[in-house]
Design a protein that fits this description.
Blueprint lengths: L8 H8 L2 H16 L3 E5 H13 L3 H4 L7 E5 L2 H12 L2 E5 L4 E5 L5 E6 L1 E4 L8 E5 L2 H5 L10 E3 L8 E2 L4 H7 L1 E2 L6 H4 L2 H13 L2 E2 L1 H12 L8 H12 L4 H10 L2 H5 L11 H13 L1 H6 L4 H9 L5 H10 L4 H21 L6 H8 L4 H10 L7 H14 L8 H6 L6 H15 L6 H17 L4
């Protein structure tokens, strides 16, 4: 294994880090120094810095790299974050029980602060209990993997000094993922999904002990110890990754998905190309997803659950802590898929027909049907019709105000709503090009309603 000259790490930081990262580090270090705190770069940020250092990555290649700035503080991390936000602006999110804070800088960059601390897991699978503050070495020993148990000092008196008590740099070099102790996955089973994310994203492999411990965790159903909310968060992390399909395939083939819920025994496809088609749809409909407040990761999750029988899907969504409103839409999309497909998978429908059918279903249900349909052949007309409805036809806009209909003789009540609906059908079909035709159509509708018996 090569021997690296760590004395050059300080120069590497000064000359290679992206300008925004170095600027933030200096801002925080200045506040930290004024308070007598020791400041360290830890977690993913330290791991990626060391990965770039051992590879001698060029400054040009790192210029636009988004560095995870995760600071560990020998001192009061929350107070340091407050002082940084006060000095430079931005917002602050505190998590006082865990002695941590997140500073959202004025340009939207998130910086994490954590007080060096000792932790224990009184109940396996639950969140850890903070036992008190500690020095940086004790803090590193509580972490998940050796590659995340690195720290680089950012304090001015020893800037660039590396702390690596568990040989994490060697594992970075060999691309090895190694837990710190045999009970790691038992203490926190969510480390299992984290291991899959790291192995897939970073092209790491687990060492023998870690692989055995992970398999033991699956066979002994460690995920039964984890709350639905924490499982949902781990799935959100997976489905938010660029390599999400590789990660979820890894989770499937290793038995993790069925360990989370026995109904999740397979994925709807073995082809990464199918996932790429879904990704293209997500990119094309990004504005619509944002409008409906449905994050992309949720679309990918719904798509990945298509192999789960609909009668078991509800219990699975409960197990992974899905919010009731979203779970209801996802479940309804599965139950109503064939019905909507039979009614809407046809070309040449006029807008009013599309609208009248689609208004019977919630918008979120239809949106999940759109993305689920990418795995179904010859469903382009279905997607085109549903997207036409979601983008252009719904919700209905008032073509003529209700008071104007009253002025034309229609009595207040449900007929106003009915008349406005008919006017909207005519409008979206292109039959009301100007206000004169609107008035003419409204008079005809009013006269027709008034001529009907028992109004």
């Amino acid at each position: 294994m090569p021997r690296w000259d760590y004395s050059k790490l300080a120069d590497f930081l000064e000359t290679h880090l992206p300008a925004y990262a170095l600027r933030l580090i200096r801002q925080v270090e200045q506040v930290s120094h004024s308070r007598g705190f020791k400041l360290y770069l830890v977690g993913g940020g330290a791991r990626e810095v060391m990965r770039a250092f051992v590879r001698q990555t060029s400054p040009e290649d790192l210029q636009y790299f988004v560095l995870d700035l995760d600071f560990a503080v020998e001192g009061d991390a929350v107070a340091l974050a407050e002082a940084a936000a006060h000095a430079h602006g931005g917002d602050l999110v505190r998590n006082l029980p865990f002695l941590t804070a997140k500073w959202i800088t004025p340009n939207g960059y998130a910086v994490d602060f954590s007080t060096c601390r000792r932790e224990a897991y009184p109940v396996p699978g639950s969140l850890p209990e903070v036992l008190g503050t500690a020095d940086i070495y004790e803090d590193l020993l509580r972490r998940d993997f050796t590659v995340n148990s690195l720290a680089v000092s950012l304090s001015r008196d020893d800037f660039g000094s590396l702390l690596d008590p568990l040989g994490g740099v060697g594992d970075v070099f060999t691309k090895t993922l190694r837990i710190l102790h045999e009970a790691s996955f038992f203490d926190d089973p969510t480390r299992i999904t984290r291991a899959i994310r790291y192995c897939t994203r970073l092209n790491y492999r687990m060492d023998h002990q870690t692989a055995l411990a992970l398999q033991q965790g699956i066979e002994e159903s460690y995920f039964d110890l984890v709350s639905p909310e924490r499982i949902r968060y781990e799935l959100e992390c997976i489905f938010s990754e660029n390599y999400w399909f590789g990660m979820i395939w890894f989770a499937h083939t290793s038995g993790i998905l069925s360990s989370i819920h026995p109904a999740w025994r397979q994925l709807p496809t073995t082809s990464g190309q199918d996932a790429e088609v879904l990704e293209l749809g997500i990119r094309n409909q990004g504005e619509l997803l944002e409008q409906e407040m449905i994050p992309s990761w949720l679309v990918r999750l719904s798509w990945s659950l298509l192999s789960v029988p609909p009668d078991l899907l509800g219990s699975l969504l409960d197990r992974i802590g899905m919010h009731r409103r979203l779970a209801r839409s996802m479940l309804e999309a599965r139950r109503k898929y064939e019905e909507v497909k039979a009614r809407m998978n046809h070309p040449g429908f006029c807008p009013s027909r599309i609208y009248r059918v689609c208004k019977e279903y919630s918008r979120k249900t239809l949106l999940f049907i759109v993305f689920n349909s990418y795995l179904d052949r010859d469903t382009e007309p279905l997607r085109r019709n549903l997207l036409k409805h979601l983008r252009d036809l719904s919700p209905r806009r008032a073509v003529l105000q209700g008071q104007r209909l009253v002025n034309l003789g229609l009595p207040p009540g449900p007929l106003i709503e009915k008349a406005q609906e008919e006017l909207w059908w005519l409008k979206i079909d292109g039959k009301l090009p100007d206000q004169n035709t609107v008035e003419r159509a409204a008079r005809e509708i009013v006269q027709r309603y008034l001529s009907q018996p028992m109004i």
